[in-house]
Design brief:
4 helices, six-stranded antiparallel sheet, 262 residues, globular, Lipocalin, 11% helix, 39% strand, mainly beta
């Protein structure tokens, strides 16, 4: 996996497990050091050695996909022992087409055997992911009540372009420190929408906008295509502000270049 994912460490997010406190300042986003989100709070029970999951980043496609039954799972290490995922699964037949479609995102937690596990809050969905030694394949087990879907399949790595849906972008933002994103308890129930075409060239971003329930723009965010960096790019800022990750030089250059063009 090291050959197709940058080797970049994100100690800033890992430090969330310490749980410092920050005051909110929406005009000047702060570094990620406030009380951790729900995924981060699980770190105490995670294995310290994550082996093949370390720096995992990629889109995996079901190996026996057909026109009517197919699936893609996106995987990205969020922090030690915590793996962000997005799934898009479809099952059907030639007569009826796709009869069951499952789209969901969340955070896998690694058990002592380095197996990623997730159960939705409503217990409707259970997901288990076993990554191969070199992270080039994954065994994915899914049990979904509604839609009814029961898989135990092999998935193959395809590429590192992690194109998120708006709902997945919201799931990701909700786990970031509110002092950095500006999305705190005063604007709960916000809506995330895709904000047009990708931004950038070789290094490119997926843009999203966040609106309050009454339609007020709360923030603009750029997600790097491999999810190694997320920027907040509000119009009244002097420059793009990092809310997740530590961008390499080329990424920083691209963000600042296109921010000035807005």
């Amino acid at each position: 996996m090291k050959s197709f994912c940058r080797f970049v460490k994100y100690s800033a997010l890992a430090s969330l497990a310490i749980g410092s406190c920050l005051c909110f300042n929406l005009s000047e986003p702060a570094a990620a050091q406030e009380a951790p989100g729900s995924a981060e709070r699980l770190l105490a029970n995670m294995p310290m050695k994550v082996t093949q999951w370390e720096d995992v980043c990629g889109a995996y496609v079901r190996s026996d996909s057909s026109q009517c039954t197919n699936g893609t799972i996106l995987l990205k290490e969020f922090s030690m022992g915590i793996i962000f995922f997005q799934i898009d699964f479809c099952e059907g037949n030639e007569t009826d087409g796709c009869t069951a479609q499952l789209r969901h995102s969340g955070f896998l937690t690694l058990d002592k055997n380095n197996v990623g596990r997730y159960t939705s809050e409503d217990k409707n969905l259970s997901l288990i992911v076993e990554l191969s030694e070199h992270a080039d394949t994954a065994r994915v087990k899914v049990d979904s009540v509604k839609p009814k879907l029961h898989w135990d399949c092999k998935f193959n790595y395809e590429h590192r372009d992690l194109a998120l849906t708006a709902e997945s972008a919201k799931t990701f933002l909700e786990e970031l420190p509110t002092a950095a994103t500006g999305l705190n308890s005063f604007n709960q129930g916000y809506k995330v929408i895709e904000a047009g075409d990708t931004v950038g060239d070789d290094e490119f971003f997926y843009p999203f906008k966040v609106f309050s329930k009454d339609g007020k723009l709360l923030g603009k965010y750029w997600f790097l295509s491999d999810l190694y960096t997320v920027y907040r790019v509000d119009p009244d800022f002097d420059k793009p502000v990092v809310v997740y990750g530590t961008p390499i030089f080329e990424v920083k250059q691209t963000a600042e270049k296109y921010f000035r063009k807005k």
